[in-house]
Amino acid sequence: MRIFAHFSTENLANVYVVADDRGNGVIIDPAYIDKELLEIIENEEIDLKAVLITHRHESHTAGLGTLEKIYSFDTYAASGEINGIMTRTVRDKERIRIGDLDIEAMLVPGHSIDSIVYRIDCAIFTGDTLFSGRVADTKGYIEKSLLLKSIRERLMTLPDATIVYPGHGPLSKIRIEKMFNVDLLESAGRFR
């Protein structure tokens, strides 16, 4: 498996291209499509098979329409439509097979009702659910409690070496988040 991280300066968001050894690939959260991202796809000879959306916020979906004009692929998301584009609705614990990539979808609501984390091998792509050192913003206390509970039950139970690829900011690992994530540490007593 090969993972290419691209920082979208337009939306200040991370876009990830993941490909198997035969070149079958997916894009996770196409924030904005620029020449540099297209060069990754073309220079690495990636056959784009799917786009995975972690949640429907514009900073993670703005480039979807542009990609559709260039490539033919399936779009997966928790909601049936993104920016007027019909998607294949992904359910919690559903597995998607793209070439040799085995992708597991995990519903982790809180930041948004449609927040999905995608797990591929020893990597998770968290969108705005989990960042390095903190968790996502929420609309209120109930949503924050739901998010923290979901992260503890769904993500913090993954192997410590699991690499976290967030929608914004630097990469992390589950072990590091267990040790240093301020939001998780502050709420530790509430969910034991």
Task: Write up this protein.
The protein has 192 residues and is α/β, with parallel strands linked by helices. It has one domain (2-191): Ribonuclease Z/Hydroxyacylglutathione hydrolase-like (Metallo-beta-lactamase, Chain A), CATH 3.60.15. It is 24% helix and 34% strand. The protein has six helices and 16 strands. The chain has helices at residues 35-43, 58-61, 64-70, 141-155, 174-180, 182-186, and strands spanning 2-8, 13-19, 24-28, 47-52, 74-77, 81-82, 85-86, 88-89, 95-98, 101-107, 116-120, 123-127, 130-131, 134-135, 163-166, 172-173. The strands form four sheets. A six-stranded mixed beta sheet has the order 1-2-3-4-5-8, covered by helices on one side. The protein has a six-stranded mixed beta sheet with strand order 9-10-11-12-15-16. The N and C termini lie far apart (36 Å).
- Structural class by sheet pairing and helices: alpha/beta
Largest sheet: 6 strands, mixed
Count the strands?
Answer: 16
Q: CATH class, please?
A: Alpha Beta
- Poorly predicted spans: none
CATH fold node name: Metallo-beta-lactamase, Chain A
- Rounded radius of gyration (Å): 16 Å
**Number of discrete domains:** 1
Q: Can you write the helix and strand succession as a string?
A: EEEHEHHEEEEEEEEEEHEEHH
Envelope shape: globular
Distance between the termini: 36 Å
Which CATH architecture is right? Answer: 4-Layer Sandwich
* DSSP strand content: 25-35%
Helix percent band: 10-25%
Please give the order of strands in the largest beta sheet: 1-2-3-4-5-8
The overall pLDDT, averaged over residues, is 92
Number of helices, counting only DSSP H or I runs of 4 residues or more: 6
CATH superfamily: Ribonuclease Z/Hydroxyacylglutathione hydrolase-like
